Amino acid sequence: AQSVTQLDSHVSVSEGTPVLLRCNYSSSYSPSLFWYVQHPNKGLQLLLKYTSAATLVKGINGFEAEFKKSETSFHLTKPSAHMSDAAEYFCVVLISNFGNEKLTFGTGTRLTIIP
Amino acid sequence: ETGVTQSPTHLIKTRGQQVTLRCSSQSGHNTVSWYQQALGQGPQFIFQYYREEENGRGNFPPRFSGLQFPNYSSELNVNALELDDSALYLCASSTSGSSYEQYFGPGTRLTVT
Question: A47 in helix, strand or coil?
């Protein structure tokens, strides 16, 4: 069965320092993976998506993620954190089953930015 | 381009009651998916509607039901509300029965007392 595991429930970084949010996946074949962000009292926004075209995926707001098959990981990074990055981040895998598709979300990582 | 909208924003219901939540899909999208997000957890897939028919369902009991209308808007109905139904309900729209690129609405916060 396909699934994702977010390794940290809470990450705190200082403004201007790098961000690393970790996600491991479980899949018997090459998965479609996503990162979504959820700001307080707002809906989910797609940050980036991986579909096997390129292992390094660039998203919005300076975020990027690298698909590493050997490590079954899809970690989200950003070189320099901004206060506006404070939010909940979800690693997501797309599951296809007899033509039906659904997104399965990880448990989330809350990112706190320290001024 | 019109984004995904949901109504109401918040509502409070009593255990045992029934509730209907509404979602208008993004312009040009014919597929709507519903998710339940309990406090402190990730969203969980309830079901998806495509061309007015259910197109996949998660592990939710039959008292969770839905509809999709010819204009692709959708309703989520929950009967016999339980306290554990308290959550943020999100809908997302996409195209052609796919979940690949979904656009989410702001959600409806349901509180069951």
Answer: strand
Q: How far apart are CA A93 and CA A84, in angstroms?
A: 25
Percentage of residues of chain B with pLDDT beyond 90: 84
Q: Which of A2, A101, A93 is nearest to B55 (CA)?
A: A101
For residue A36, the chain B residues in CB contact (below 8 A) are: 104
Under 8 Å between Cβ of A106 and A33? no
| SS3 category, B85 | helix
Statement: residue B37 has pLDDT above 90: yes
Q: How far is A44 from chain B (nearest CA, A)?
A: 6
**A26, A43, B94 from B28: Cα distances, Å:** 33, 20, 9
Q: CB of B36 within 8 Å of any CB in chain A? A: no
**Integer Rg of chain A from CA:** 14
H helix and E strand count, chain A: 0, 12
